[in-house]
Specification:
By secondary structure, the protein is an alpha/beta fold. The chain has helices spanning about 15-25, 35-50, 60-70, 85-90, 95-100, 115-120, 150-160, 170-180, 185, 215-225, 235-245, 250-265, 290-300, 320-335, and strands at about 5, 55, 75-80, 100-105, 130-140, 165-170, 190-195, 205-210, 270-275, 280-285, 300-305, 310-315. The protein binds pyridoxal-5'-phosphate (PLP).
Length: about 350
């Protein structure tokens, strides 16, 4: 029996067809800009999303870091969600490595950062203050798709205030597929966008930063400084390319399975459904039963993350099929109702 791993969409393993694409990739030295497959991936995402240039990097954390360091200088500040990945889950990299001060802003329940709070956080130009230079959003945020109308308003706000505008679009394609708004239309509102290939898209490694040629040139320099200059990375780029060709439209299946999982878990007495958004389901269970639930699920070869206590986040992805959803529902049901 295969494990049903609902901890994250990072856990997917490359499919046989993706591995075959990796094996046959044409490669070269990417530090010299000579890896044809990396170059093709970068060109492809830049063109698809309507940007001048793109940069392939190992992780989303590095992609966001390079973006922040390319928009901001030492002593600058960026506005960011208090619960955003960039601020909270990236080791404070912008401050540690970029000397960039974050100004966290509390999210509204829908994940948006209220414009009045953003406006109030912008510092006057005065030697007392860091220079507010950038607004960074995240979409999807905890699975939620930010409303397009909000993205337009935030873009206009950033323009009016002379701020750069960055999107942590780790799951941009989930947002696009779920909302029916193209990734290009969403991304086009921003000055730079970071996209993860190794989440729902199912590649083993890699993120891509897109932006203007000037921004990507800076990011390329910072990538080398951060130790991210890699060589025959085309084998990894081939996986990304394969993912873009074959794994975007199918994200709708992950969303449908998350909806089905949510509906069925919500009917179990003892499980409180908080909601489901794109490929994520959020449920509360009684905190004192959590350990036992985890043991019970593991016995059925199901993994969940219990790090978000008391809320459980269950994430669907390429390696979760209908049988995996059914097994999960059954295991929850036997645990809470005994049958
Ligand atoms: C996963 C993720 C990242 C990047 O994470 P890495 O593990 O460094 O690839 C960035 N932002 C969001 C919202 C993410 O979920």
């Amino acid at each position: 029996m295969e494990w049903v791993d609902l901890r994250s969409d990072t856990v997917t393993r490359p499919t046989p067809a993706m591995r075959a694409a990796m094996l046959s990739a044409d490669v070269g030295d990417d530090v010299y800009g000579e890896d044809p497959t990396v170059n093709a991936l970068q060109r492809r995402l830049a063109d698809d999303l309507g940007f001048e240039a793109a940069l392939f990097v190992p992780t989303g954390t590095q992609s966001n870091l390079l973006a922040l360091m390319s928009h901001c200088e030492r002593g600058d500040e960026y506005l960011v969600g208090a619960d955003a990945h960039t601020y909270k889950f990236e080791g404070g990299g912008a401050a540690v490595l970029g000397s960039i001060q974050p100004q966290p802003i509390a999210h509204d329940v829908d994940g948006t950062l209220p414009l009045d709070k953003l406006a109030a956080a912008i510092k006057p130009i005065d030697p007392h203050f860091a220079r507010t230079r950038l607004l960074a959003l995240e979409n999807t945020w905890h699975g939620r798709v930010l409303p397009l109308s909000y993205l337009h308003a935030a873009r206009d706000f950033a323009r009016a205030r002379g701020l750069g505008f960055h999107l942590d679009g780790a799951r941009l394609f989930n947002a696009a597929v779920a909302s029916g708004v193209s990734a290009r239309e969403i991304a086009g509102l921003f000055d730079s966008v970071s996209i993860c290939l190794s989440k729902g898209l199912g590649a083993p490694v890699g993120s891509v930063l897109v932006g203007s040629a000037a921004l990507i040139e800076k990011a390329r320099r910072w990538r080398k400084v951060a130790g991210g200059g890699w060589r025959q990375a085309g084998m990894l780029a081939a996986a990304g390319m394969y993912a873009l060709d074959h794994h975007v439209a199918r994200l709708a299946e992950d969303h449908a399975r998350a909806a089905s999982l949510a509906a069925q878990l919500g009917e179990i007495h003892g499980v409180k459904l908080l909601g489901h958004h794109t490929n994520m389901v959020f449920v509360d269970v009684p905190a004192e039963r959590l350990r036992d639930l985890d043991v019970h699920l593991r016995a059925a070869e199901i993994r969940i993350s219990i790090g978000y206590l008391p809320t459980l986040r269950l994430v669907t992805h390429l390696d979760i099929d209908d049988a995996g959803v059914a097994r999960t529902v059954k295991a929850f049901r036997t645990f809470f109702t005994g049958g």
